[in-house]
Amino acid sequence: MRLAIVTGGTRGIGRAVADRLATDGWDVLALARKPAPSPHRFIACDVADAVAVRTAFVGLTRIDTLVNCAGLAGANRLDGDDALWHAIIGSNLHGTYHCCKAALPLLPNGTGRIVNIASVLGLRGVPDQTAYCAAKHAVVGFTRALALAVAPRGITVNALCPGWVDTEMAAQRYAELGISAEQAASTVPTGRIASPEEVADATIWLLRPESRGITGHALPIDGGSLALP
């Protein structure tokens, strides 16, 4: 059975990805800081901690795919506390790096896949999201560089860049902005917020044999938001 490691796999997009993989017959190992009700195998792991990541991978001899969904968001400005900056960079960027580094020796040549969940904020900026934008821009750049590094092995590395998705993280952002989900949806050209399952569907497509020619790309799932002037 093929093994997929999904970070942040107990809630939000990560949970939807884990569920979809399991439905498709994958063995799923979810990594997250805290457990949550889930049918999937689980290891408690703060991906920002390199030692914790290495420990989580001990005993594994083969991984067929890694999906990096773990992340942290929050409004921060340069006149604020540095702790939030470091936490967001640590979870989103360093966590992606640590997990990719641990997974690469275990991924099979020719069929290995890595999908990094970035964000539309990895492709544009928002004034009060300096840390999150910096982290997600870096994840996109890291994805492109790593894709070239492992291309000779036939391993693909891609990023997905969701816009508004119906998750707890989005709800926290609505509260920060003082808006409702309906108001957020009105800013999207298609007039709707994506479901976590839609992002999971895109992830699954990138794992299939027919997508083996696609690597080093950052695919938006944003309802057309990035097409706006």
Topology:
Elements: E1 3-7, H1 12-23, E2 27-32, E3 41-44, H2 50-57, E4 65-68, H3 82-103, E5 113-117, H4 130-150, E6 156-162, H5 168-177, H6 181-186, H7 196-207, E7 218-221
Parallel strand pairs: 1-2, 1-4, 2-3, 4-5, 5-6, 6-7
| Strand arrangement across the biggest beta sheet | 3-2-1-4-5-6-7
What is the element string, with H for helices and E for strands? EHEEHEHEHEHHHE
Helical segment count = 7
Poorly predicted residue ranges: none
The portion of residues assigned to helices is: 25-40%
What share of the residues does DSSP label as strand, in percent? 15-25%
Q: Between the first and last Cα atoms, what is the distance in angstroms?
A: 46 Å
Mean pLDDT value? 97
Question: What would you call the shape?
Answer: globular
The number of E-state strands comes to 7
Mind explaining what this structure looks like?
The chain has 229 residues and is of the alpha/beta class. It is 40% helix and 15% strand. It contains seven helices and seven strands; from the N terminus they run βαββαβαβαβαααβ. It has helices at 12-23, 50-57, 82-103, 130-150, 168-177, 181-186, 196-207; strands at residues 3-7, 27-32, 41-44, 65-68, 113-117, 156-162, 218-221. The chain has a seven-stranded parallel sheet, with helices on both faces. Helix 3 (82-103) links the parallel strand 4 and strand 5. Helix 2 (50-57) runs parallel beside helix 3 (82-103). The radius of gyration is 17 Å and the shape is globular. The model has no long low-confidence stretch (mean pLDDT 97).
